[in-house]
Amino acid sequence: MKSLLFKTFLFSIAMVAVTAILKYAAILPAIHDQWHFMLVFYFVLTTFILYQLLKVIRKTMRKFIAIFLSMTALRMILFTAAILLYAFLIQHDDSRNIVGFTLTFSVYYLVFTTWEIILIVSFLRSPPTG
After folding, report:
1. Range of 89's domain?
2. Per-residue DSSP letters for 22-75?
3. DSSP state, 91?
4. How far is residue 120 from each of residues 21, 37, 51, 90, measured CA to CA in Å?
């Protein structure tokens, strides 16, 4: 389990490098200026969720499915609320900034969710240790 969490850390470092290159080489200037805070947020949240899911997998698969679906739904609601909160309360007058925030946030959501699923599937396919 620790190796999967370490892989998530390395993945996040790689995301920092890729985002910095895309943003500061002017390849993709629409990346929101607060992208580094988003990455820290996604790293912490993904690590927490992954840790909780891997603990449940060790106990019972039936519980895992219910918890995985619940966490996914809760995360989608939370992230939609974060985007709406940013759009309506923080940057309600700057539509270009809202679009950059929403796109950056959404791409990170897709990337980190894909990463999480890849790690969970690899964990499920690996032979049990111990």
Report:
1. 2-125
2. HHHTTSSTTS-TTHHHHHHHHHHHHHHHHHHHHHHHHH-HHHHHHHHHHHHHHH
3. S
4. 29, 25, 10, 35
Q: pTM of the entire structure?
A: 0.82
Altogether, the residues listed in the chain come to a count of 130
Q: Which of 71, 17, 19, 14 is nearest to 46 (CA)?
A: 71
Which residue is associated with the tokens 């946030």? 105
Q: How many CA atoms lie within 13 A of 1 on its CB side?
A: 13
Residue 86 tokens read as: 């940013």
pLDDT in tens, the chain (130 residues): 678 888 889 999 999 999 999 988 888 888 888 888 889 989 998 888 888 888 888 778 788 888 888 988 988 998 899 888 888 887 666 777 888 888 999 999 999 999 999 988 888 887 666 5
**Considering the domain boundaries, does residue 130 fall inside one?**
no
- Total number of domains constituting the chain: 1
3: number of Cβ within 10 Å: 9
Report if residue 73 sits inside a domain: yes
Taking phi over 0 as left and psi of -120 to 50 as alpha, with beta for the rest, 94 belongs to beta
